[in-house]
Write a structure and sequence with these properties.
This protein has two domains: about 180 residues, HUPs (Rossmann fold, 3-Layer(aba) Sandwich), CATH 3.40.50; about 90 residues, Pantoate--beta-alanine Ligase, Chain: A,domain 2 (2-Layer Sandwich), CATH 3.30.1300.10. The protein is of the alpha/beta class. Helices cover about 40% and strands about 20% of the residues. The N and C termini lie far apart (about 40 Å). Strands 1-4-3-2-5-6 form a six-stranded parallel beta sheet, sandwiched between helices. Strands 7-8-9 form a three-stranded antiparallel beta sheet. Strand 3, helix 3 and strand 4 form a beta-alpha-beta unit. The chain binds adenosine monophosphate. Adenosine monophosphate binds next to helix 2 and strand 5.
């Protein structure tokens, strides 16, 4: 595996790979876990070569968020990726990604405005901007993203369609189902922030979501079901709930009642100082 930190060596590495066939890109912020490695394995299965990016993107963190505290373990991540047969690790310096004078931002309206977009103003502008840059830098045949970040995936798909990024340069965007711990908690780099006590309580999130989904599917009133879900999380020790909503799975429009299309239950909640997100399919 070749590790590159600047654009020129990235371009040389890519032209060698391109001669061999198709390239898949897996963008990450590092502190890799099995969720990330699942994306890498799917990429490996679909493409001739795999490029993984590790970049803790300052643009997607709000002023009071965990940019400085975000785990950075590049040496360990690099070993994991090499063991998975990754061809290129693209780990740009912040100055390579955002050189002096950088002044461009991509905003995807609609789908990025509610849920995490409302709770974290500017977050998805930062995500869209960096992902667009990664697509332009790597020009992969496909890119893989986790359904763990359902809204992020929707924002990226919208941007790719709107900016014609799904033309020959980035042929396809694949969503990969959420990888969970044995007890059901969605894997996340931020789980490392949880104390042992918080980690034990965190399982209430997927459990309460599954209970709510059973109630929705049984035809119980949505508002009452969502209120009970919030109540259950507070009782389990969560400090606050950013949102708990049933949404149209594609547009992410918040629903007041179930509809006859794919739906998703999406929750963001804080346990101590850690913000956890999760989402699950509802209905068909
Ligand atoms: P991150 O490093 O958190 O920015 O995540 C990088 C990519 O891995 C994103 O596409 C995430 O959606 C995906 N990802 C993170 N956690 C999981 C998980 N538990 N299951 C599946 N994909 C995940």
């Amino acid at each position: 595996m070749q590790t590159v930190n600047a654009l020129d060596p990235l371009r040389s590495a890519l032209s060698a790979l391109r001669a061999k066939g198709t390239i898949a890109l897996v963008p990450t912020m590092g502190a890799l876990h099995d969720g990330h490695l699942t994306l890498v394995r799917k990429a490996r299965a679909r493409a001739d070569a795999v490029v993984v990016s590790i970049f803790v993107n300052p643009l997607q963190f709000g002023v009071n968020e965990d940019l400085d505290a975000y785990p950075r373990v590049l040496a360990r991540d690099s070993e994991l990726l090499a063991a998975e047969g990754v061809d290129v690790l693209w780990a740009p310096h912040v100055s390579a990604m955002y050189p002096e004078g950088f002044a461009t931002s991509i905003r995807v309206s609609g789908v990025s405005e509610g849920l995490c977009g409302a709770a974290r103003p500017g977050h998805f502008d930062g995500v869209a901007t960096v992902v667009c840059k990664l697509f332009n830098q790597v020009a992969p045949d496909m890119a893989l993203f986790g359904e763990k970040d359902w809204q992020q995936l929707a924002v990226i798909r919208r941007m790719a369609r709107d900016l014609d990024l799904t033309s020959p340069h980035v042929a396809r965007i694949f969503g990969v189902p959420i990888v969970r711990e044995e007890d059901g908690l969605a894997m996340s780099s931020r789980n490392a922030y949880l104390t042992a006590d918080e980690r034990a309580r965190a399982v209430a999130l997927p459990e309460a979501m599954r209970t709510a989904i059973a109630r929705i599917e049984a035809g119980e009133k949505l508002a009452e079901t969502l209120a009970a879900l919030v109540q259950e999380l507070m009782q389990a020790g969560f400090a606050s709930i950013d949102y708990a909503q049933l949404c149209d799975a594609e547009s992410l429009d918040v629903l007041a009642a179930p509809i006859d299309r794919a739906m998703r239950l999406l929750v963001a909640a804080r346990l101590g100082t850690t913000r956890l997100i999760d989402n699950m399919a509802v209905g068909r």
